[in-house]
Amino acid sequence: MPLVRGVLVGPPHTYLVQVSTALGMSVFGHPGEAEHLLHLLARLRQAFDVRLFGYLILRDGLRLVLRHHVSVNESDDRLRTRWALIDGSPLTTVSRIKQRFTSLGGFMQTLLQRFSREWNRRHASRGHLWSGRYRACLLADDHALLAAVAWVEDAHLHRTVRVLSSAEAHGPEALLPLAPLPIRRGPDGSLFTADESPPGLSPLTDQDGRTGFRDYVAELPPNDLAAYGVALSNGWALGRPESLSGLLSRIGRSGGRGRSRQLRELDDRLGLCGVWG
Predict the structure, then answer these.
(1) What is the topology classification, in CATH, of domain 5-68+103-179+220-276?
(2) Hey, is 194 helix, strand or coil?
(3) Residue range 218-223: average pLDDT?
């Protein structure tokens, strides 16, 4: 039996997810559709307790940087209440709700099905909105997460028309609240990722965190961001070699094409690698 993604890929269960529309349909080229998606994402973020770090809505697709849970420890009534936050439609059993809440596939299935249903209703249409399965790339450490957000938010690195991005959606008026980025600033102004910061550095406020992130991105050469885009769009994972050792070991023990996937150096300033083959 094939392993589910969460078991095969492993922690930290943080991903860049990419979705394309069927036949390149300009789904988000219609006025207001990007905002409809953000309102739905806001409901799902609360119900699934997903942490969303960044997003990009294109005319014919979307990119999400998110982290999801792989277990729930709440009562059945609480789980039903969380599910009702989405749109009030019931699932038949709590076990099905748990399956949805604890997998990336459950979150994406709910998001894409709900948006497709609402879009078809608004446009008196029918049929498939999305092109096959979504693509997901594990972000194995905080440097990979920040690199993914930087790539997603860079307006010059995406081939199709950009509609809306997390780069311009911050503050109390934002339709979709974002999780704090894992970045710290030392007393001398030096920047660190949360998983490598010296002891005692506090998380930054939302505004200071975005300022720190802009400073972090400003130090990345454009060629590095382009290389991250290749790895994120083609690979299973992005991260530093030491963060990817467990993933490579699990892939090597699994059956199928995964055994041919290997670490690929990106020759970048952060020392990140992609995993694909």
Answers:
(1) Alpha-Beta Plaits (3.30.70)
(2) helix
(3) 94
